[in-house]
Design a protein that fits this description.
Layout (H helix, E strand, L loop, with lengths): L4 E6 L7 H14 L6 E6 L2 H8 L6 E4 L16 H6 L2 E6 L2 H4 L5 H14 L2 E6 L9 H13 L12 E4 L15 H19 L8 E4 L8 H6 L5 E2 L8 H13 L3
Parallel strand pairs: 1-2, 1-8, 2-3, 3-4, 4-5, 5-6, 6-7
Helix pairs in contact: 1-2, 1-9, 5-6, 6-7
The structure holds 1,3-dihydroxyacetonephosphate.
1,3-dihydroxyacetonephosphate (13P) binds next to loops.
């Protein structure tokens, strides 16, 4: 059986209070009550996860980062096991905003392994900073994927979601999102890298999703023409109205 499409809301460092987070989450839950064919995940700040878990089981919870160490003297860090214990089932790893703070492919690789062994499903973010006419950006993404997935077993690959998030398309300063055609090219390219590494059968359940200025206006094209298996919206995930529209578009196009 094919995996369901997946929409992962990345709240980033929002909202500013637990009260607002609970309201936002409850509003999102209400707005997606009739969704059956699409998996929905909210990646909220660590400090809200446990409370949000109590509001509804309809939405899975994810964290926005994890530390690779298991236990011990790592001041300020949070382990995969701790996240699983409070109810998280997904975790974003290698987001470009964390890479911009110094995280490299080797760190991301350790985080993926640690997440998998604690039962968390990693959402691996990859994407180039800019595009160039010589298509060097393809090589950049290939290296990201190969290094981040180094040593991951064939049995585990179906648990990983790959989010293609070109850095130039993220955030309110971005001039525009990628086009469905640009995503389509990358989608095929990523599948090829994965099938070479893990085998065609093993990767048939891996979902490749798009992130970078996704909204309710452009979502349809990414699924229809880009063959996206879902999305990783940032800003749009903070509006229950926009987020639920994206989810409904995805649901309507799900087989
Ligand atoms: P925006 O949708 O706000 O561009 O953010 C994308 C992103 O970084 C999600 O992880």
């Amino acid at each position: 059986m094919k995996s369901k499409n997946i929409i992962v809301g990345n709240w980033k460092m929002n909202p500013l209070s637990l009260k607002e987070a609970e309201k936002l989450f409850a509003d999102v839950v209400k707005s997606i009550s009739d969704i059956k064919k699409t998996e929905i995940v909210i990646c909220a700040p660590f400090v809200y996860l446990e409370k949000l878990k109590k509001i509804s089981k309809k939405i899975s919870l994810g964290a926005q980062d994890v530390f690779w160490g298991e236990v011990g003297a790592f001041t300020g860090e949070i382990s995969a096991e701790m996240l699983y214990d409070i109810g998280a089932r997904y975790v974003i790893v290698g987001h470009s905003e964390r890479r911009a703070m110094g995280e490299n492919n080797n760190d991301v690789n350790k985080k993926i392994k640690s997440a998998l062994s604690a039962g968390l499903r990693p959402i691996l973010c990859v994407g180039e900073g800019m595009r160039d006419e010589n298509h060097e950006y393809l090589n950049f993404v290939k290296i990201q994927i190969e290094e981040c997935l180094n040593g991951v077993s064939k049995d585990s690959i179906s648990k990983i979601v790959i989010a293609y998030e070109p850095v130039w398309a993220i955030g309110k300063e971005a001039p525009h999102p990628a086009t469905p055609e640009e995503f389509r090219e990358m989608n095929i390219f990523i599948k090829k890298i994965l099938s070479d590494k893990f085998g065609v059968k093993e990767i048939s359940k891996v979902r490749i999703i798009y992130g970078g200025s996704v909204d309710d206006k452009n979502a349809e094209g990414f699924i229809k023409d880009g063959k996206a298996n879902g999305f990783l919206p940032g800003r749009a995930s903070l509006s229950p109205e926009k987020f639920s529209k994206i989810v409904k578009i995805c649901e309507a196009l799900s087989k």
